[in-house]
């Protein structure tokens, strides 16, 4: 049975709460985390919801389970770690991170970006921000959207309250784009590479200029593959660890051919 919106957000919230508790040192090496039954009793959620939260943290490498003993935190290296396998996973970043505005949403002329967004002229709207975990920036992001979507975004109360650099909020831009667009975000094309930090990026992230950083470009598209948002992200290598969760294998043969 497909999960409902409340169930999906509930397991992510449980996972986020446990992730933050582990990062805060509440479960040092050797100390058992609450059991599924204990979390069911304390949260009032169903066992499957709690179990899914545990499964997500196991996949991320945040916790490990020992049969007969319990669940324990994996000793961390201080980096922010999340596992991504869907658009919903990216939208859930707002559960345990903050956005801090660098440049509020504004109009920009760029032939290159306009071409990637497939707009008819060279004018788009853009904004840039830092993504923070526990108040420390680990990612610098520049988001570009078509003019029509940008104008709708600018009318949202979430963005009208972020008109000044340094303003903070807990949301993701893709969740807002998904809300205002006539076409829902259906997929994303991602390109990851290592680049040298420019002086500006180094200043934003608090790292030395020229340091190799991870750059991830994501082009979000609707069901017809039309672009809705281009996000260009640069990650601090000492504060972020990227993990991609791959789903199960797809059988190219489809159904069992012996039965045909």
In CATH, the architecture of the largest domain is: 3-Layer(aba) Sandwich
CATH class category label of the largest domain: Alpha Beta
Distance between the termini: 28 Å
List the domain count as a whole number: 2
The overall pLDDT average reads 85
What's the alpha carbon Rg, rounded to whole Å? 20 Å
What does this structure look like?
This protein is an alpha+beta fold and 260 residues long. The chain is built from nine helices and eleven strands. The protein folds into two domains: 5-73, Arc Repressor Mutant, subunit A (Orthogonal Bundle); 80-244, 3-Layer(aba) Sandwich (Chorismate lyase). It has a seven-stranded antiparallel β-sheet with strand order 7-4-5-6-10-9-8. It has a two-stranded antiparallel sheet with strand order 1-2. A two-stranded parallel sheet has the order 3-11. Helix 1 crosses helix 3 (47-60) and helix 2 (36-43) packs across helix 3 (47-60). Mean pLDDT is 85; it is low at 1-5.
């Amino acid at each position: 049975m497909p999960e409902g919106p409340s169930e999906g957000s509930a397991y992510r919230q449980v996972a986020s709460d446990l992730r933050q508790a582990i990062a805060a040192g509440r479960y040092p090496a050797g100390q058992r985390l609450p059991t599924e039954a204990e979390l069911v009793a304390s949260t009032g959620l169903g066992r499957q919801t709690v179990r899914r939260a545990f499964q997500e943290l196991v996949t991320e490498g945040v916790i490990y389970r020992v049969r007969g003993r319990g669940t324990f935190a994996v000793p961390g290296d201080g980096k922010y770690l999340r596992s991504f396998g869907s658009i919903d996973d990216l939208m859930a970043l707002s559960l345990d991170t903050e956005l801090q505005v660098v440049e509020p949403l504004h109009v920009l002329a760029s032939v290159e970006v306009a071409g990637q967004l497939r707009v008819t002229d060279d004018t788009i709207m853009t904004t840039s921000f830092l993504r923070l975990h526990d108040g420390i920036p680990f990612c610098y992001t520049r988001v570009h959207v078509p003019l029509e979507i940008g104008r709708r975004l600018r009318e949202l109360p979430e963005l009208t309250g972020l008109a000044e650099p340094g303003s903070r909020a807990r949301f993701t831009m893709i969740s807002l784009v998904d809300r205002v667009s006539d076409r829902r975000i259906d997929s994303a094309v991602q390109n990851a590479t290592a680049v040298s930090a420019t002086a500006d990026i180094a200043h934003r992230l608090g790292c030395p200029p020229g340091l190799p950083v991870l750059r991830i470009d994501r082009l979000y598209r609707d069901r017809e593959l039309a672009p809705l948002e281009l996000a260009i992200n640069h990650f601090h290598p000492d504060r972020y660890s990227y993990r991609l969760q791959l789903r199960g294998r797809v059988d190219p043969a489809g159904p069992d051919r012996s039965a045909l």
